[in-house]
Amino acid sequence: SAVISQKPSRDICQRGTSLTIQCQVDSQVTMMFWYRQQPGQSLTLIATANQGSEATYESGFVIDKFPISRPNLTFSTLTVSNMSPEDSSIYLCSVAQGPNTGELFFGEGSRLTVL
Amino acid sequence: GQSLEQPSEVTAVEGAIVQINCTYQTSGFYGLSWYQQHDGGAPTFLSYNALDGLEETGRFSSFLSRSDSYGYLLLQELQMKDSASYFCAVRVLNSGGYQKVTFGIGTKLQVIP
What we know:
The structure holds 2 protein chains of 2 kinds. Chain A contains no helices and 11 strands. By secondary structure, chain A is mainly beta. By secondary structure, chain B is mainly beta.
C-alpha cells in the first residue's frame, strides 16, 4: 500500500489569496488524482495529475483556478488560486499504484477555510 | 458522464447484516469499488469488482452485475465501529484513454445497539 503525506492538514485563508497543497507518496505511483469534498458530501474529482505533462481537468474545473504540478512519480501539488469562501472544502490527494487497479489510496486531506 | 445512485442513509442493528446497493450509468466502465469513510477521516478502500460475481473479504462482501449496472456491499456481523459513510465508485476509461474514479453520494450507515 502507498503512504501519502499531505500538507498543510488545515489552513485558514483570506479571500483573494492562493494556497498550494503538497502531496508526497512513499513510492512511485502511476496515477495521482486530486479530489474535493465538502463535509458530509461526496468526493468530486478535480483533475488527474499527469507526470511530465499538463493535468487533465474534469468539467467545471480549470487550470487557471487549480494549477497542478507533478514533477515526478512521487510528488504533486495543487494550488487553489484567488480563493473565495466557496472554495472552503477538504482537498484530497489520491493515488493508484497500477493502471489496472481499482484501489485508490488517499491522503488525510487538507481542510481549507476561506474567510 | 457518470451517475451513481445509492441510498443516503441506512440504520442497522449491531450483529445484523446490511446491504448497500449501488446502480450506475456510465460508459467505458471497468469496475466498481467500495470505500469506507469515518467522520473526519480519509476514505479507505474496501473492495473492487471488475467481473460479475461476489468478492468476499472478511465480514465484507461486494457483488457486481455488469449487465444490470448494479452492485452491492454486504456487511455481516455489524459492529459499532462500522458506523461510517460508504461510497460506491466506478472506475472508467474515457476517450482520452486515462483512468479515473467517480464516486457516488455515499451512504451513511448508523449501527445501533
